[in-house]
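Marked as duplicate of an earlier ticket. Keeping the data here for the record.
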Amino acid sequence: MASMCAVIACANLRRHIGAAAPVHEFRCLSTCFGRVIHVSRLCCLILLAVSVSPSLLAGQPGGGFGFPHPNFTGASGAMTPQQFVTVFDAAMHNPNSYRVWINSGTDIRKLNPNGVYLKHLNARTLDPTYDSVGDHPDYNYVHTNHPEWILHDANGNTVSMGGATEECLDFGNPAYLDWVFGTWFPQQYFDSTDSSVALTYYLHDNGNFLRQYINCAANDSVCQRYNTDSGVQSAFKTLFDKFHQYYPTKRIVISTGLLSYLAPADQLPWMEDVLSHADGMFDECLENEHCYWNGQPNSGKREALDATLQLADWLAANGKYFFPNLGMGDGQQPTQVQINYGFAFFNLFRSGNKQFFSIVTKDSSGNWQPRTYPEQNLALGNATETRQQTSPNVYRRTFQNAIAYVNLSDGQVSIALPAGSWKNSLGQAVASPLLLPSFSGLTVYGSTSQPTPSPTPTATPKPSPTPTSSPTPTPSASPTPSPTASPSPSATATPTPTPSPTPTPTPTPQPTPGPSPTPTATPIVIVTPPPSPTPTSTPTPTPEQTPTPIPTPTPTPEPTLTATPSPTPTRIYRQGGKGRKKPKSPSPTPVAGVGL
């Protein structure tokens, strides 16, 4: 039977996904016997796990595909969760959506254990409007028990990252992080999959690694820390180190981005230093289109794009995840011309199986609805060269079955294609010379002819820098949350879904806020991390000593929720300057018989 399983192909697990209902019976073909046989459920489950493994997706040597905030509406022709995991290797969504999927038996983390499916998190700020949805720490608990964790300016006002109801925290404070990862995570933030599966993934928002501009009191050393670039960067490194201390088998990536007003040499050193403590990077942008800095001069756009190429090289060389998105920056679905440019730009740096190409696609109601597109099913083959700069700001990268061309210069360029017939992703013929406008690109397919390698290859990625030392204090005893901190399981409110937000772009390089979730049930458990080599004592205001923690969280049952999409993302911060706030994602709307 083992040899038969090795040659079995399950017909419903192909990348060409249609609108048919999910198949519950696996018909498997044995090439040894030349007949249809029925195999055990275990064998087919093994095949399912292999079929959706990101490293085995045919024709995509540089990684797979991702989608942010997928909605499974149950509408005719809409993609189901079971179909989603055979096509998309990465995703990001709010905790409330994961809970709904758990209750309907369609948690994509369980359907594809190999997927990089991120759950949104923001431990940098408090926000009472998001407290009930669960991705921000408990507002009432912090205000009641640890007001010293909240930043204040010289006038005693709380400090915001850009949202009207946000309050910035001393998020590099070891005592605060001990409470976040030792108490709030297992008791409120974690769902049953988080608690039962060793390897799960999280997206931390607000990845602005530069100083805040706060009018701090002269004697307020806590506030002053966040008024410096080094102070903010040190806080992030402490947060990531604490996360790994508590959860060494789990992964955390940060939502951040590159800047159009700094040369790569002026931003990559500190970006790489901070990212060396995290497991990867999520970006609302891929190239300039749909990005908040698209209105900057061409020279500024090139700074950010060049930095993106170099940072992508560094991330791949150091085993980090990279999940850039085309269309998420402004919430708009890209046109085919924009997809051509974005995919060609992605192909310039793709390497390994931890990089994911992502575009926003919508249904007729404006919900972010995942669907397949031609680029997913056209085999590039292995890369036969690193990206080449064939003339100033004009790039090429050749694969066995395709060539990616990108023009980042100020004018149109004419490119002579190699001998052979070439087509675009839609199957349309592409004639030589290829004319590419300024800031555009195209991947052409269909010929085995190869161009002559250029003598000016791009720089190879440099090795990971030695991370700047950041203290990794020993977790302090975790304070017991007040009774109001633990929401009881209850059905989520059910407003009608609204179309994706269309935020107003800002020319100043800036972080944007990120998605939000719904309340979580509270398993009463406290996690104790591995002992630190240099124990320190952190006093807590709790009058009673915390009882001995239970080592393995056992969450209480998930709330009973039956719903369709949480239709749109909420808000994500970008690097530099002020943030801008998007509307909060409404709770899913119940639809009989349909699960998210």
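See parent ticket for discussion. Confidence is low (pLDDT under 50) at residues 1-59, 448-528, 531-596.
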